[in-house]
Amino acid sequence: NAGVMQNPRHLVRRRGQEARLRCSPVKGHSHVYWYRQLPEEGLKFMVYLQKENIIDESGMPKERFSAEFPKEGPSILRIQQVVRGDSAAYFCASSPLGLAGPPGETQYFGPGTRLLVL
Amino acid sequence: DQQVKQNSPSLSVQEGRISILNCDYTNSMFDYFLWYKKYPAEGPTFLISISSIKDKNEDGRFTVFLNKSAKHLSLHIVPSQPGDSAVYFCAASVGAQKLVFGQGTRLTINP
């Protein structure tokens, strides 16, 4: 029974390149959340997606960042033209119930992708 | 605008004693509070939660207390064990599942 999978676990990019982070939720989960953790800080919500829909993107920077969760395949967090300030750990969480269920305890986190921008 | 704050970056406790981790919040609309545990190079793992209509929730060695008038919650771990050494995050939500996290407290259990 595989948990949330994220790849790559580590990603190094030069300034101006694109970063693609992938998240495969727990089998059967149709709700995905992305969080970002900057060094020495807590996790910060970025975006909440349900299959093919963005439900809440209030934590996403307005430019360069986008997310999708297609009908088939993993969820993708895409960062265009990366800058040094994008260096962080990016965590994905999945849930079977979304807004219909109790919060938090149904969110299962992946191991994260550590992005380093040189 | 830090809505959830954990003011102690680190805490050291002797094995077998009680560990108390604290968390303060500012948003009175939060209706659900959670504690997560995180080991290095892993994602957060859910520990325990409490609804805003309760003041205490217990699960084995873990108890969470909520004081709404003070906008304060705490996690008690007793007895503390070496495997409890990790970073603990307090989180809160308003209705929907978007979680607001504190900065974390690094707990070290000394043998």
Structure write-up:
The complex is a heterodimer of chains A (118) and B (111). Chain A has no helices and 11 strands. Chain A has strands at residues 5-7, 10-13, 19-24, 31-37, 43-50, 53-56, 65-68, 75-79, 88-95, 108-109, 113-117. In chain A, the strands form 2 sheets. In chain A, strands 2, 4, 5, 6, 9, 10 and 11 form a 7-stranded mixed sheet that branches. Chain A has a 4-stranded antiparallel sheet with strand order 1-3-8-7, with no helix packed on it. In chain A, strand 4 (31-37) and strand 5 form a beta hairpin. The mean pLDDT of chain A is 91. Chain B has strands at 4-5, 10-14, 19-25, 32-38, 45-51, 56-59, 62-67, 72-77, 86-93, 99-101, 105-110. In chain B, the strands form 2 sheets. In chain B, strands 2, 4, 5, 9, 10 and 11 form a 6-stranded mixed sheet that branches. Chain B is globular. The model of chain B has no long low-confidence stretch (mean pLDDT 93). The interface between A and B is medium-sized, with 30 and 25 residues.
Radius of gyration of chain B: 13 Å
> N-to-C SSE series of chain A?
EEEEEEEEEEE
- Give the overall form of chain B: globular
Which radius of gyration of chain A do the C-alpha atoms yield?
13 Å
The low-confidence parts of chain A are none
How would you classify the helix and strand content of chain B by structural class?
A: mainly beta
Structural class of chain A: mainly beta
Order of helices and strands of chain B: EEEEEEEEEEE
The largest pleated sheet of chain B is described as: 6 strands, mixed
Number of helices of chain B: 0
User: Assembly type of the shown chains?
Assistant: heterodimer
Ends of chain B: how far apart?
38 Å
Mean pLDDT of chain A: 91
Number of separate strands of chain B:
11
What percentage of the residues of chain B does DSSP assign to strands (E)? Answer: over 45%
Shape of chain A: globular
Mean pLDDT of chain B: 93
**DSSP strand tally of chain A:** 11
